[in-house]
């Protein structure tokens, strides 16, 4: 058994398959899941695990070269907006409907138990060299 890092075997395997430019949608429990991408659903109950916990864990495992979120997050969920702005200084903001369209091109969707609106971000994988 792994000693640290991501223990969920489905998530660990999916992350290992990602390459440069692949998209990863980290989303709240209410985000519509697009058909097509691999989905790892971590939601256990409302708020568990939180968007922040899952995002922090993923950022320990991934190289991210860009991120996009819904512009509505600024007004509807200031805590998520602050978290995203702190982690991604060049965060792109688009209308929520556009984020849903972009999410269809993601290679992986990681669903959290977050129960606050607009706690969603589309990550673009980078490379470690």
Brief write-up:
With 129 residues, this protein is of the alpha/beta class. The chain is built from 5 helices and 6 strands; from the N terminus they run αββαβααβαββ.
Features:
129 residues; single chain; alpha/beta
Describe this structure in words.
This protein has 129 residues and is of the alpha/beta class. Strands 2-5-1-6-3-4 form a 6-stranded mixed sheet. It has helices at residues 9-16, 51-61, 73-76, 78-87, 96-103, and strands spanning 23-27, 38-41, 64-70, 92-94, 108-111, 121-125. It has 5 helices and 6 strands.
Describe the largest sheet: 6 strands, mixed
Euclidean distance between termini CA atoms: 28 Å
* Run of helices and strands: HEEHEHHEHEE
| Strands, total number | 6
What structural class do helix, strand and pairing data support? alpha/beta
- In one word, what is the shape? globular
